[in-house]
Write a structure and sequence with these properties.
Radius of gyration: 20 Å
Oligomer: single chain
Largest sheet: 3 strands, antiparallel
Distance between the termini: 61 Å
Shape: globular
Helix content: 40-55%
């Protein structure tokens, strides 16, 4: 075990933070999925000094460190997360092969993401789900963001994840926080490769390597909540479901047996196999712009926040978003870390979309 390394959280703190989260949170999914998502929340707390860490930041903590601290088998956790992604892929392939996709289940009839309310939704259009997945799965692509920036004059922050050698990183006097938050232009990325810090763009890790996000450039952030809502407002509630599934895949693939950007792979698979997609990368650029947070105040929910059930109203954020898009009553909920009122976000999205549609180049 590697808890003596600089920047790695002590075992007792990792266990206590998980215990507090597990006692406090109920997610709208199977307990095994909840556990896997809470492990990912612990790493966020350790990196940012939240929760039990109370301002102390342990930026080099990895998912392997947390799993071992909790006496979980890292390989089993990875496999379970990949199985959830595979279930989404099975649904996508079933629609591409002619299925209607009306029931949101995998090939074995299990609810996607083990989220029990998804198969209960009525009026789901499988092709629209795939359209939403295409939009959500590509909106973080660097080419898409650059295209959106050129068209709208807005710099959108971005980066990519790489397989990073923790020993090489430490030898260079670096840490995960600097990699994630400092700008890395192509020359800097090339230097990190030469230094052995970046081992590969994708593939299987080992005891010394892990999947690490590197910022390429600073800029406006984006909101996952806004992406789901904008896809829904533009293309219907089924597209919003697809965007949500793409976001879930993006979250889950941060800790799987082999790393390869599966949300983008599935999105391009849809584009290649669905002749009547009726969307182009220009449409993805529009979504990337619409969900960009120019104000710095738009909530951005993690997958845990999307699924976290408010027990006072027995509803979670993604359910409220879908109910709003369906024109049905939804519960008032606080979103993301800031607990921003969901009604405020819905109003914001409506106004931003109306302003966008009024642009001369859009309306003409």
């Amino acid at each position: 075990m590697s808890f003596h390394l600089p920047g790695v959280a002590p075992v007792d703190l990792l266990r206590e933070d998980f215990r507090l989260l597990d006692n406090r949170e109920t997610l709208r999914c199977a307990w095994e999925t909840e556990q896997n998502l809470l492990v990912q929340s612990v790493i966020g707390h350790a990196h940012e000094g939240h929760g039990i860490f109370r301002g102390r930041r342990f930026v080099n903590t990895t998912m392997d460190d947390i799993c071992r601290a909790l006496r979980l088998d890292p390989n089993l956790v990875r496999a379970e997360r990949q199985e959830l992604i595979d279930g989404v892929g099975e649904y996508i392939d079933a629609v591409l092969q002619g299925g209607d996709g009306a029931t949101l289940v995998d090939n074995r009839g299990r609810a996607l993401l083990t989220m029990g309310t998804l198969p209960l939704l009525s009026g789901v259009n499988g092709k629209d789900v795939l359209r939403g997945f295409y939009l959500g799965g590509l909106r973080d692509d660097s080419t898409i963001r650059i295209g959106a920036e050129q068209r709208y004059g807005l710099i959108i922050g971005g980066g990519e994840s790489y397989l990073v050698s923790r020993p090489a990183m430490l030898r260079q006097g670096l840490d995960a926080d600097r990699l994630a938050h400092q700008d890395h232009d192509p020359a800097a990325i090339s230097l990190l490769r030469q230094q052995g810090v970046i081992v590969a763009d994708e593939g299987v890790d080992d005891a010394d390597t892990y999947y690490q996000y590197l910022r390429h450039r600073r800029g406006t952030g984006t909101s996952d909540d806004a992406c789901v809502l904008m896809c829904g407002l533009r293309y219907g509630v089924s597209a919003a479901i697809g965007a949500f599934l793409a976001d879930a895949v993006d979250t889950l693939e941060k800790y799987v047996p082999s790393f390869k950007g599966q949300d983008g792979i599935l999105a391009r698979h849809i584009a290649a196999k669905m002749p009547d997609l009726n969307l182009t990368e220009r449409d993805v650029e529009d979504i990337a712009y619409l969900c960009a947070d120019e104000s710095g105040q738009v909530p951005d929910s993690s997958l845990r926040h999307f699924l976290s059930v408010n027990r006072h109203v027995d509803q979670c954020a993604i359910e409220a978003h879908l109910l709003y898009l369906m024109g049905r009553p939804y519960a008032p909920l606080g979103l993301s870390h800031e607990r921003s009122p969901n009604a405020d976000l819905y109003r914001y999205c409506e106004e931003r979309l109306a302003t966008w549609k009024a642009r001369p180049e859009i309306g003409s």
